[in-house]
Amino acid sequence: MTDDTLFSISSRPINPADLIKKVEHRNCGAITTFIGTVREMTHGKKTLRLEYQAYEKMAVKKLEEIGSEMEEKWPGTITAITHRTGMLDISDIAVVIAVSSPHRKAAYEANEYAIERIKEIVPIWKKEYWEDGTKWIGDQLENTPYEKGFPEKGEK
Amino acid sequence: MIKVLFFARLQDEAGTEALEAQKAGQTVQEIKAWLKEEYQLSSLDQAMAAVNEEFANNEDTLSDGDTIAFIPPVSGG
């Protein structure tokens, strides 16, 4: 990743250090990173690998929207998010979120907000590959069907 | 002419990622009904619609050149 955009979708492996660099700032006193990785065992069921698909154009827009929500809620924070697509093995990195802030509390809180919002509004899907089959996963938050037919802006 | 995009499970059900149709002037709801009938998309009711990359309501009307995408419940992260 050599680009300097804060919000992106990538079909190549993500290097967390690249995202940390993007949010570094002379006035920041804290940078938090969240690294989402591919887990092998879920409720006793063994995952062999995962495939991520994104509606890339809209996914980037929605990541930017999350960034705007965060700026409003935690002024002074800078956020960078990259999500992977394609086939991933166990322990591969699926998503990295880096947040810098003048003080640590905001960096922790904003980072958690970002991953929760990704799971709500960003059009990315994962397909589980098990020993006995495959399935596109949805509704991890059990928040569908949405009351208004779509997720609301900044409702968290 | 409008463009229709499918993702994840819906893409498997439709057997295609995208298609074009003469459906300008119709509402999201009408296009959904047509797709359900034409392609037997059993999970379409759980999907949200996005028109030109923004979540849309069932009553929204498509214009010529618009892209409507059906977004199954997301599972990123």
From TrEMBL, chain A:
Pathway: Cofactor biosynthesis; molybdopterin biosynthesis. It is an enzyme of class 2 (transferase). CDD domains: MoaE (cd00756). Gene3D superfamilies: Molybdopterin biosynthesis MoaE subunit. GO terms for biological process: Mo-molybdopterin cofactor biosynthetic process. SUPFAM superfamilies: Molybdopterin synthase subunit MoaE. The keyword Ribonucleoprotein does not apply. InterPro entries: MoaE_sf, Mopterin_biosynth_MoaE. Heterotetramer of 2 MoaD subunits and 2 MoaE subunits. Also stable as homodimer. The enzyme changes between these two forms during catalysis. Belongs to the MoaE family. This is Molybdopterin synthase catalytic subunit. It comes from Sinobaca qinghaiensis.
TrEMBL record, chain B:
GO terms for cellular component: molybdopterin adenylyltransferase complex. GO terms for molecular function: nucleotide binding. Coiled coil: none annotated. Pathway: Cofactor biosynthesis; molybdopterin biosynthesis. SUPFAM superfamilies: MoaD/ThiS. Keywords: Molybdenum cofactor biosynthesis, Nucleotide-binding. Pfam families: ThiS (PF02597). Transmembrane segments: none annotated. It comes from the Bacteria. Involved in sulfur transfer in the conversion of molybdopterin precursor Z to molybdopterin. Belongs to the MoaD family. Heterotetramer of 2 MoaD subunits and 2 MoaE subunits. Forms a stable heterotetrameric complex of 2 MoaD and 2 MoeB during adenylation of MoaD by MoeB. During catalysis MoaD shuttles between the two heterotetrameric complexes. NCBIfam families: moaD. This is Molybdopterin synthase sulfur carrier subunit. It comes from Sinobaca qinghaiensis. The lineage of its organism: Bacteria, Bacillati, Bacillota, Bacilli, Bacillales.
